[in-house]
Write a structure and sequence with these properties.
94 residues, 4 helices, 74% helix, 0% strand
């Protein structure tokens, strides 16, 4: 049972934390706007790409309007807290 807990807690925190961050920041508005305004090969969020350059970043941020810009900023602020929670899950599972 302890081994299951050791494996499950970090996984649950990772998946649950990513979902919660997305919901709290209303990130679906950012994704929808990018799908409407950007070419198909630019629609993948930057944090889900293996590589991107300064032009990719510029297109990503230039496509945002004030509402989605606030949403993206909230997501990034929450992303700063996430490693603490995820690290805490690892520490707590030991």
């Amino acid at each position: 049972m302890r081994i299951l807990f050791l494996l499950a807690l970090p996984a649950v925190v990772f998946v649950g934390g990513a979902w919660l961050m997305t919901e709290l920041a209303q990130r679906e508005t950012v994704v929808a706007l990018h799908k409407a305004r950007l070419a198909e090969n630019d629609q993948t969020p930057l944090n889900q790409r293996f590589h991107y350059d300064v032009n990719d970043v510029r297109r990503h941020w230039d496509a945002l309007d004030p509402v989605t810009l606030a949403s993206e900023r909230t997501f990034l602020e929450l992303d700063l807290v996430f490693p603490l929670l995820y690290g805490g899950a690892f520490g707590g599972s030991c």
